[in-house]
Amino acid sequence: MAPEVISGTHYGAPADMYSFGIILSEFATHQVPYADLRHPDSGKPLPQHYVLDHVREGTLHPTLDGEGVPAWVKDIGLQCLSLNEDDRPTALDVSALLSLYEP
User: Fold this and answer.
1) Cα(2)–Cα(52) distance, integer angstroms
2) What is d(CA 85, CA 76) in angstroms, rounded to the nearest whole number?
3) Domain 3-99 belongs in CATH node 1.10.510.10
4) Burial level of 86, CB count in 10 A (0-12/13-18/19+)?
5) d(CA 31, CA 24)
6) Does the structure show a pLDDT above 70 at 103?
7) Checking CA distances to 96, which of 6, 71, 80, 88 falls within 20 to 30 Å?
8) DSSP count for the chain of H helices, then E strands
9) What backbone phi and psi angles, to 5 degrees, belong to 27?
10) What is the pLDDT of residues 26-67, one digit of tens each?
């Protein structure tokens, strides 16, 4: 969920691009976002409110560090996961970037 959606403020297409970044994270790691985060003392998964608060603040991003993930996938994912919605690429931007990497 995009930070602006969590905050309950106005949101639009950039929130969808944030979601695309989340999907890239899931493809890269084969896990749901933040599944790798554990409480340092208990080893249990972090509570959802902790994750939501830190995503909203921009201090927490899902990982894109899966085995064999190309650097360009990480780059596009990080762009999509930008805290500032104006810094996120549009769907057209991502389409153009992806066309550079067609086999």
Assistant:
1) 9
2) 14
3) yes
4) exposed
5) 11
6) no
7) 6
8) 5, 0
9) -65, -40
10) 999 999 999 889 999 999 999 999 999 999 999 999 999 989
